[in-house]
Specification:
Elements (H helix, E strand, L loop, with lengths): L1 H17 L3 E4 L2 E4 L1 E4 L5 E9 L24 E2 L9 E2 L5 E2 L6 E7 L7 E7 L25 E5 L4 H5 L11 H16 L5 E11 L1 H10 L10 E5 L12 H14 L20 H18 L4 H5 L33 H6 L8 E6 L4 H9 L1 H9 L1 H8 L9 H12 L11 H28 L6 E8 L29 H5 L9 H20 L18 E8 L1 E8 L3 H14 L14 H13 L6 H9 L7
Parallel strand pairs: 2-5, 9-10, 9-11, 11-12, 12-13, 13-14, 14-15
Antiparallel strand pairs: 1-2, 3-4, 4-8, 6-7, 8-10, 15-16
Length: 625
């Protein structure tokens, strides 16, 4: 009898799954496709769903416009939408400007309760990446009975071009994510989602975006919790000044034939000596530049990204979030740490964390390339702020380089590259400079003023798959930037499937622990799992969760995150960092040292066209205005 009942129930499930899922929305019906979770839960996937008007033509370099089109017939959402324009590994443009779309994954559960929603913002240094459904697949997370939404947003020049004034204030990529969140609030109930339980999460640049959006009241009622993996809004690569952005804006305009007027390099600074008429004239000139740039082929604009590399591919992040002039739709009007210190952030539950060996993302190429190592060592003083993406914030370049050498490489002149100490120390330096210190600083300062709980983790599990495979290695070199995300999404499993590797039992255990923790955090604000100890908030004696112990998925609570290294960076930023307590902070506070540093940077700018190098030499004085 029970055998027949089981067969009947299976027949009903198969028959139901054979019909494509259709959901009715405010814009008409949408057809998706079926997928399965790791444990066999049926998932309805709706791919490439538009949430805003295409940002093309007159909408290029503008805030996103809400999606308004209604479908008379069923809209097919069974394939990924286009990724946003970006350069591939061959420096060719891929993607399409009509890229503002969502992938929505809904588990099929037996009851009708509204499910928590995770909105995920991909990383990629603000210049690359997408919501690719193969890499950001739902098969791990949706066993927690949550809805997953992954977001495409404008990248690079299209997403972050800023003139330093109202002509093009920038941050379009951030505003895209806000528009996606507005769309989700208006429509996710049609998919079975709970609009009161929306968690915003991201990795790397995506994490910085998430943190930025949690620091502005513009996102009130759009999400109620955040998760940030290896990224924060206060990292130097995650926040640019208007002066820095203006240089890139005008360089692009000149190179693409949209201006010859170099006087408009001035930034529209309310505290400057420019008259009101002068400022208005600059804005008008910038608007004329924008009209010209809106007519340019996207390929020509995207290829400008590589023009700003000063040493090899550094600085890599030339276009990203920027301090905007105050306006109704402005997202960032002051430095994130000023917002935190003024306690103007949204007080909501927060998980933040980093991996054990973040720095391999930068150090691995040096470790594997002897010629590159020699070049790096010989030019250390001149290029280190560029390589560490900190050229905007350092006031005394020589002293900065000296202190880094003293702390990480006390035997710098006699460095033995083949020794493990070099591998460890250069990886630590990159990791601390790019991710560790800034995540630590943001969480430490912000959590002390929060009523909500903040949770910190250090991912130390050495699993089968790793981002270090991207360097051509066929083995896991370390627990690097992005390795933790592989236990939330099967990114590297699918990216490197030709290696014919499979998850081990320990990998599966870590997947189950992390997805359960994240799922429970979405539901309750507490990251808990059956196989983990109680996760104490960071506010309780600076406690953090250590996720994994080498090859073992064991986890434990610890105190004090990298105390000596974090103290070093705190002192370093106090002694050589430029001030950040004004809307347009000074980049260089020592004229003689600053001019020399700028000259050295320009001398090493081997990838810039001569016309641009000449132009930058002419306007280098902007750094000391």
């Amino acid at each position: 009898m029970y055998h027949y009942l089981w067969l009947i129930s299976m027949f009903i499930c198969v028959k139901a799954a054979s019909r494509e899922p259709i959901v009715r929305t405010n814009f008409g019906p949408i057809r998706g496709k079926w997928m399965n979770s790791n444990r066999g839960l049926l998932i309805a996937a709706y791919l490439g769903v538009p949430y805003a008007q295409p940002p093309i033509g007159k909408f290029r370099f503008k805030s996103p416009q809400p999606w308004q089109q209604h479908w008379i017939n069923v809209h097919n959402a069974i394939e990924d939408g286009p990724k946003c324009p970006q350069l591939d590994e061959n420096m060719k443009m891929v993607g399409d400007e009509d890229c503002l779309n969502l992938n929505i994954f809904v588990p099929q559960i037996s009851d009708k309760r509204k499910l928590p929603v995770l909105v995920y913002v991909h990383g990629g240094s603000f210049v690359t990446g997408s919501n690719n459904s193969t890499l950001l697949a739902p098969n791990y997370l949706l066993d927690q009975e949550i809805i997953l939404v992954t977001v495409n947003y404008r990248l690079g020049i299209f997403g972050f071009l800023s003139s330093g004034n109202e002509a093009s204030p920038g941050n379009y990529g951030l505003k895209d994510v806000i528009e996606a969140l507005v769309w989700i609030q208006a429509n996710i109930e049609d998919f079975g989602g709970n609009t009161s339980l929306v968690t915003l999460a991201g990795h790397s640049a995506g994490a910085a975006i998430v943190h930025h959006l949690a620091l502005t009241n513009r996102t009130e009622n759009l999400f109620d919790k955040i998760i940030t993996h290896s990224g924060s809004a206060n990292a130097p690569w995650a926040i640019h000044t208007a002066k820095y952005s203006k240089i890139r804006y005008i360089t692009i305009a000149i190179e693409l034939g949209c201006t010859t007027n170099r006087k408009i390099m001035e930034v529209d600074d309310p505290s400057s000596d420019l008259s009101k008429n002068d400022q208005e004239s600059i804005v008008q000139d910038d608007m004329e530049i924008l009209k010209c740039l809106r007519k340019k082929n996207p390929e020509d604009i995207v290829k400008m990204l590589s023009y700003f590399y000063l040493w090899r591919d550094s600085p890599y992040i030339n276009f990203g979030p920027v301090v905007e002039p105050p306006a109704e739709d402005a997202v960032i009007i002051k430095h994130p740490m000023v917002t935190i210190e003024n306690e103007e952030f949204r007080d909501i539950p927060w998980i933040s964390g980093v991996t054990a060996d973040e720095g391999y993302i930068k150090s691995l190429n040096l470790i594997l390339d002897a010629e590159l190592r020699d070049e790096f060592k010989d030019a250390f003083d001149e290029i280190i702020t560029i390589v560490l993406e900190q050229e905007e914030i350092i006031g005394h370049h020589k002293e900065y380089a000296h202190q880094l050498i003293q702390f990480y490489f006390p035997d710098f002149d006699d460095l033995a590259y083949d020794q493990q100490s070099f591998v460890n120390n250069i990886t630590m330096m990159f990791g601390d400079a790019l991710f560790n210190y800034w995540s630590f600083e943001a969480l430490s300062r912000q959590s002390s003023a929060m009523n909500s709980s903040a949770f910190f983790f250090k991912f130390t599990y050495d699993g089968t798959f790793s981002a270090t495979f991207s360097s051509g290695l066929t083995r896991n070199f370390g627990i690097t930037h992005g390795d933790d995300i592989n236990y939330i999404f099967p990114i590297y499993n699918n990216m490197y499937e030709d290696l014919e590797l499979n998850n081990t039992l320990n990998d599966i255990t870590m997947i189950n622990i992390m997805t359960e923790m994240w799922g429970n955090f979405m539901k309750t604000g507490i990251p808990s799992a059956q196989l983990s100890p109680h996760w104490q908030p960071y506010q309780e004696d600076f406690r953090f969760m250590k996720l994994g112990m080498g090859r073992s998925p064991d986890i434990s609570m610890e105190n004090d995150f990298l105390p000596m290294r974090m103290e070093f960076w705190n002192n370093l930023m106090t002694s050589v960092g430029a001030p950040r307590d004004t809307l347009f902070p000074e980049v260089i506070d020592d004229n003689e040292d600053g001019e020399e540093a700028v000259n050295q940077i320009l001398m090493n700018a081997t990838n810039l066209p001569n016309s641009v190098k000449s132009f930058l030499l002419d306007i280098k004085i902007i750094f000391t205005l």
